[in-house]
Amino acid sequence: MAEFxxxxxxxxxxxxxxxxxxxxxxxPGVTGNAHPETSRRAGTTPRKGSQRLQVLEALIEHGPMxxxxxxxxxxxxxxxxxxxxxxxxxxxxxxFVFDEDGMVETRATTPGNTGRVHQVEPLGQIVVNGHxxxxxxxxxx
Length: 141
Fold this sequence. Notes:
This protein is an alpha+beta fold. It has a single domain, classed as Winged helix-like DNA-binding domain superfamily/Winged helix DNA-binding domain (Arc Repressor Mutant, subunit A), CATH 1.10.10.10. It contains six helices and six strands.
């Protein structure tokens, strides 16, 4: 028998506001203090939201990956993707993959380097696809 968990969006009520979730994808991006003013201004553009959405869609389509893997698929800088992943982690749209010992799974990226493996969380699935699988959550209709 399947074990149900409370829906992370509707908390079991069946009522969701995916528009407010989608708005999180368009919040200002993160830029470091050492970046020039033009970079900080660019961080507030909607383009950052679309990059977050692209990262989520890549993870949904291709499964768990490192920032390096996602960057190769999206033809972006791994640093850009790592920043977007950090933002998506903060909003609980993505999470890490853990191995059987409870450690964050890593994979080889470039020679001598590894990257942590990220996956889409249920909230990330919902923000991209809507509340399409309420049967996996307790109380959702």
